[in-house]
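Preliminary data (for renewal application), glutamine complex.
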Amino acid sequence: MKVGVLALQGGVREHVQALMDCGAETVMVKGRQDLAGLDGLVIPGGESTTVGKLLVRFGLWEPIRQRAAAGMGIFGTCTGMILLAGALPGDHGPRLGLIECEVVRNAFGRQIDSFETELAIPVLGERPFPAVFIRAPYLVNPGRKVEVLATIDEKIVLARQGKFLACAFHPELTADLRLHRYFLDLLRLC
Ligand code: GLN
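Predicted structure:
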């Protein structure tokens, strides 16, 4: 299993470490050549407008779209969730639109409103997941193909569509590897 971590901005090293701890071969993705042969790609948290611009500058939008259409899975955390979703009307940010839903940015408030919570994620088992939210988004208007995996007050904070997994929080900032393992299982099974 070979998984890339988009290494333009944000929590790159922590994702690389988590994937290696799960036993996956891991590469940092800085250019289109790094996408070759990947089963999956992690898009870490950061700032979605900046990451969107860097994706343009490094010529990565189309290659990522093409690899995703050819079967590469994507795990987007926070900014990654934003990029995986579709844009709300009036929101002109760049989006991959690979998960049929829309995204509300900074939806839980400002940096100071960041929080950590024990989140129920039934697909990961009974033990709640330590979820760190930093200026997090959430998803709205999920389409029929979207499987909602966790919510807070009916706000969608974890969802998947096929091999695309979108997460509003930062699993790479805790020692709990279950979500990274879940993504690797999706790559194997879907
Ligand atoms: N608020 C950021 C954005 O709009 C996301 C924050 C994060 O990735 N932790 O991209």
